Amino acid sequence: MALQETWRWFGPHDPVTLKEIKQTGAEGIVSALHHIPIGxxxxxxxxxxxxxxxxxxxxxxxxxxxxxxxxxxxxxxxxYRQYIENYKISIRNLGQCEIDTICxxxxxxxxxxxxxxxxxxxxxxxxxxxxSTVFAAFDLFILQRPGAEDSYSAEQIDRARQYxxxxxxxQREKLVEVILLGFPGSLKAYTLDEFKNAVMYYITTARxxxxxxxxxxxxxxxxx
Length: 224
Fold this sequence. Notes:
This protein is mainly alpha-helical.
């Protein structure tokens, strides 16, 4: 199977244009319809509009990354059955537009998170970064997640405290903004309270399920 060089493009609002991507030698584009709210159907017309943009620059829309899974599906609550139906329709619509490689994930709350969105790589390129001490500082002293101190060693907590104490108010606000940005390509971000509530939902549910299963004699391992 031949490999194809592709490039992640976040759509018309991406600061990197398709013409600039062409200079890299990439042949395919990895993209998604980030402007469509999570859970709504990707209509064929919307898919074709994006596909036409990509085709006209000499690329193929090779991969959808990603077709996001609504939080209600992950929880199995509220309107999740309708969101599942919408998801199935979106997959079929992508197939009708000859796009058959689709990324998705079931990671709760944030699809991913970094502590720095503008790290200069050794060749001068800009990339993202994650530092455990920085995240611990956020978790312990900004988010103040209940029970967070149990997730870290005394040494880790001490390093996190030193880092946190060295931040200005503006730097702390920027750290919150970076960590809570969430889904790539999306302009929506959680507030601190919304994020804490979302995280605590999963922690509480996991503990409740743990108690139920252990009472039934099941061996359960939970990582939080």
